[in-house]
Design brief:
It is built from ten helices and 17 strands. It has helices at 12-19, 29-34, 46-51, 56-64, 111-124, 151-162, 201-205, 238-248, 254-264, 268-276, and strands at residues 81-85, 95-98, 103-104, 129-132, 136-138, 144-146, 171-174, 178-181, 188-190, 195-199, 210-217, 220-222, 225-227, 230-237, 282-285, 288-291, 294-297. Helix 8 (238-248) packs across helix 9 (254-264). It is globular.
C-alpha cells in the first residue's frame, strides 16, 4: 500500500497526521483506480481519471511506479558514523564518531539533559515506553510534542540551546512545541551497561550444535518516561559459546579472539543486539578483542 501526499518532509504536524488513522481514508492502489473503497468511500479524483483517458489500469501502473515522496530529513545523517548515549549518571559523556572509533565529545550537558536525550533517542529508535511523561505526545520519526508552559518544555528549549553548535547531537525545535533528536536512527546506540546476554548451561551439556542465546536490553528510566525491557533470541554455534567463555576467563589468545569475533558477526546474535541498541558484543580495545556485554549462564 502507498500513501500519496505532496510536500511531506518529516515535519511534526504532518507526522502527527500520518499517525492518526481517524483523520485519513486509506486507499489501496486498486481502490484508487476504481475511485472508491470497498465500503463506498469516494476519492474525488475525476481529473486524474481524465488525464489517463479513463484507462484505470494505466493509472494504477503509474501509481505503482511512483517513488515514495516522504523524507524523514534527519539533520545529522553522516555516513559510517555512530553516536552512543551514556548511562543516566553524573559525569557521563556522549561518544560519537566513525564506527569503531567513537570518542567522548565535549558537550556541557547536565544529568537531566542526558536523561532527556536518552528518552529522545529511545523514541527515535522505536523502543517501547512502559509509561511516558504526562506532558508529552510521541509522534513518528522521533518527534515529541510537549504541552505549553510545562517544565519539560522549558528543559527541552534549554537543551536545544546547549546543543545548537554541536555537529553530533542535533536537536530540532519546531515552534517550541515539537522536538526531536535529529540523527539517522541506525546511527544511535546506547551504553554497554544497558545490555546482557544469557544461555542455558544444559544446552551445552546436551552436546547440541547450537545454543539459544537471549540478548536483553534492560529497562531504564529517562526524563521522558520508562523505556521497557526488550529481548531478542538467536541460536549460535556451541563452539562460539565455548570460545566466548574462554575470552571471559581472560584467555587472550590473539588468534582465538580474532576467530571468535569473525564468527560472532555472522550469526543473528549480532543483528539482535544491534536492533536493541548495542554496538556489539565483541570489539577491539587497546589492541585486544574484548567482550563488552555481561554473559550469564542459567
Amino acid at each position: 500500500m502507498k500513501l500519496f501526499t505532496s510536500g511531506i518532509r518529516g515535519d511534526p504536524a504532518q507526522s502527527s497526521l500520518l499517525a492518526d488513522n481517524e483523520k485519513l481514508i486509506w486507499f489501496t492502489l486498486e481502490e484508487v483506480a476504481q475511485g472508491q473503497t470497498s465500503d463506498g468511500k469516494i476519492a474525488y479524483i475525476e481529473a486524474l481519471f481524465k488525464d489517463f483517458d479513463d484507462d484505470r489500469t494505466s493509472l494504477k501502473q503509474a501509481l505503482e511506479n511512483l517513488k515514495d515522496s516522504f523524507e524523514a530529513n534527519y539533520l545529522n545523517c553522516q555516513q559510517n558514523y555512530r553516536i552512543v548515549l551514556p548511562r543516566d549518571e553524573e559525569g557521563q559523556r556522549i561518544s560519537a564518531g566513525v564506527r569503531g572509533k567513537e570518542a567522548a565529545i565535549d558537550l556541557p550537558l547536565n544529568q537531566h539533559q542526558v536523561s532527556l536525550l536518552l528518552g529522545m533517542a529511545a523514541h527515535l529508535r522505536g523502543f517501547d515506553f512502559l509509561e511516558k511523561a504526562p506532558s508529552i505526545i510521541v509522534h513518528p520519526y522521533g518527534w515529541i510534542e510537549v504541552e505549553e508552559n510545562c517544565d519539560l518544555q522549558i528543559e527541552l528549549i534549554k537543551l536545544v540551546e546547549t546543543c545548537k553548535d554541536s555537529k553530533d547531537v542535533v536537536v530540532e525545535n519546531q515552534k517550541n512545541r515539537w522536538f526531536r533528536l535529529s540523527i539517522s536512527p541506525e546511527c544511535v546506540f546506547f551504553d554497554d551497561a544497558y545490555f546482557r546476554c544469557s544461555y542455558y548451561q544444559k544446552d551445552l551439556q546436551n552436546r547440541q550444535n547450537k545454543v539459544c542465546v537471549t540478548a536483553i536490553r534492560r529497562q531504564f528510566i529517562t526524563r521522558l518516561g520508562t523505556v521497557a525491557e526488550d529481548k531478542k533470541e538467536a541460536k549460535i554455534s556451541t563452539s562460539i559459546i565455548k570460545s566466548l567463555d574462554k575470552l571471559m576467563k581472560g584467555e587472550q589468545d590473539d588468534s582465538l579472539a580474532i576467530s571468535v569475533r569473525g564468527s560472532y558477526r555472522k550469526p543473528p546474535l549480532h543483528d539482535g543486539l544491534s536492533s536493541l541498541g548495542m554496538r556489539g558484543l565483541l570489539r577491539q580495545d587497546a589492541g585486544a578483542v574484548r567482550i563488552f556485554c555481561e554473559i550469564m549462564e542459567n
